[in-house]
């Protein structure tokens, strides 16, 4: 059976991924924080957005092309930054970068992923975006901006919704360490996942390739702690202003949930704002991102593009977010489920699922283009 029939949705790919990668990697990818109420709330609230079907539209193919921050993309969705992508599937970043180029969608590379901006930009070309947390050391920040620019990256994402690392209880219980400690329990879990083990042997253990330039080679085994020190910048608006002054490309602020923060981001020169609750991984008491979206859309009022993520698992969810005021959507887990399930071809398959589902559902509601979706909320 081909992938289209065997894994027809992101949910099918997630189930396959769960069985194919080691337990600690799955728990890292899939988990939220606390009781994971926000992960559930993101889902429930998306499901509660209903759109009225319209009939008698005749035969047409919806136009889902989209212009964002000066570039034209084939669809209104992209790949959100995911740290340690190479832990879920070796070389995941490279597969996603190739897909971003061939399918023409943006790929936000996380600074704590396992490939460098230089390598990813070579593959994704102009579709490579770079995401940073907030490095504490000014020279690390400056160097990351310099490297991104030299790699030809035009769009920088600053993620601000991790003021401090959150507790992720499932990850703790799974014994996740960075880098993984090869104790008997871990070795047993790896041995039960032979495809992952072989792929990792071939590709090599995941390394923090972007950041390892900034810590001493003899301290690599302390990876997680050193990375924690580097990214622990506790951002504020002064920090943002400093980046704005240093970066002459597009600057996107990711991780907003409050209209006042969106307003401030625009006042401080953000070129786009990104509504997100980090997929329910940071603060379990927050509202669903889709619930926060309409008030932010009203406040932003088209001054800058409005990006959205948290909970999207299909084309219908993208349609829901666009109808409530988002200009563009991203998925974090969705693309990584796909690559974990099927290897590199999973990236293309996820794109095809999302595109097909989006177009199909647009026809169900009689929408011919993304402009038509904007009018649905009026
Ligand atoms: C395993 C994992 C790692 C993540 N790492 C980062 C990161 O390094 N930088 C970042 O800005 N967001 C990170 N995120 C958040 C995503 O960019 C995105 O906001 C979130 O996944 C959206 O929710 P979704 O997974 O339901 O699509 C991560 C998410 C996951 C699931």
What is the topological layout?
Blueprint lengths: L2 H4 L3 H11 L2 H8 L6 H11 L18 E3 L2 E3 L3 E3 L5 H4 L3 H12 L3 E4 L6 H8 L3 E5 L5 H13 L4 E5 L9 H5 L10 H8 L2 H10 L19 H9 L5 H10 L3 E7 L2 H9 L4 E4 L13 H12 L5 E3 L6 H9 L4 E4 L1 H10 L2 H20 L5 H5 L4
Parallel strand pairs: 3-10, 4-5, 5-6, 6-7, 7-8, 8-9, 9-10
Antiparallel strand pairs: 1-2
Flavin mononucleotide binds next to helix 3 and helix 17.
Tally of individual helices:
19
The CATH level-2 architecture is identified as: Alpha-Beta Barrel
CATH H-level superfamily: Aldolase class I
Strand order of the largest sheet: 3-10-9-8-7-6-5-4
N→C terminal distance: 44 Å
Kindly state the mean pLDDT as a whole number? 94
Percent in helix: 40-55%
The radius of gyration over CA amounts to 20 Å
**How much strand?**
5-15%
What class would the helix/strand composition place it in?
alpha/beta
Q: How would you describe the overall organization of this protein?
A:
By secondary structure, this protein is α/β, with parallel strands linked by helices. The protein has one domain (3-377): TIM Barrel (Alpha-Beta Barrel). Helix content is 47%, strand content 11%. The protein starts with a helix and ends with a helix. The model has no long low-confidence stretch (mean pLDDT 94). Bound molecules: flavin mononucleotide.
Key words describing this protein structure:
alpha/beta; binds flavin mononucleotide; globular; 378 residues; 47% helix; eight-stranded parallel beta sheet; TIM Barrel; two-stranded antiparallel sheet; 19 helices
């Amino acid at each position: 059976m081909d992938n289209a029939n065997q894994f027809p949705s992101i949910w099918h790919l997630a189930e396959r991924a769960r069985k194919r990668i080691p337990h600690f990697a799955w728990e890292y990818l899939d988990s939220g924080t606390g009781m994971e109420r926000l992960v559930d709330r993101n889902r429930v609230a998306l499901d509660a957005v209903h759109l009225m079907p319209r009939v008698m539209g005749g035969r047409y193919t919806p136009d889902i092309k989209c212009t964002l921050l000066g570039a034209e993309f084939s669809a209104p969705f992209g790949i959100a930054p995911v740290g340690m992508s190479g832990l879920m599937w070796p070389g995941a970043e490279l597969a996603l970068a190739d897909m971003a180029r061939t399918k023409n969608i943006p790929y936000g590379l996380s600074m704590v992923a396992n490939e460098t901006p230089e390598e990813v930009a070579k593959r994704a070309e102009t579709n490579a975006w770079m995401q940073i947390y907030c490095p504490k050391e000014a020279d690390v920040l400056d160097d990351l901006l310099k490297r991104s620019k030299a790699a030809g990256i035009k769009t920088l994402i600053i993620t601000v919704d991790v003021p401090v690392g959150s507790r992720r209880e499932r990850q703790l219980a799974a014994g996740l360490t960075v880098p993984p400690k090869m104790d008997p329990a871990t070795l047993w879990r790896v041995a039960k996942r032979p495809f992952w083990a072989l792929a990792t042997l071939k590709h090599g253990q995941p390394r923090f390739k972007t950041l390892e330039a900034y810590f001493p080679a003899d301290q690599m085994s302390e990876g997680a702690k050193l990375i924690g020190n580097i990214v622990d910048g506790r951002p504020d608006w002064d920090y943002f202003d400093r980046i704005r002054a240093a970066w002459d490309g597009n600057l996107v602020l990711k991780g907003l949930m409050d209209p006042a923060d969106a307003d401030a981001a625009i006042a401080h020169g953000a070129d786009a704002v990104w509504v997100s609750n980090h997929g329910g991984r940071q603060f379990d008491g927050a509202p669903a991102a889709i619930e926060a979206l309409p008030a932010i859309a009203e406040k932003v009022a088209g001054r800058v593009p409005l990006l959205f993520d948290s909970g999207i698992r299909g084309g219908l969810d993208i349609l829901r977010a666009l109808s409530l005021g988002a200009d563009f959507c991203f998925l974090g887990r969705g693309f990584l489920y796909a690559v974990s399930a099927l290897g590199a071809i999973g990236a293309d398959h996820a794109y095809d699922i999302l595109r097909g589902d989006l177009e199909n559902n647009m026809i169900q509601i009689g929408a011919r283009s993304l402009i038509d979706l904007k009018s649905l909320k009026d």
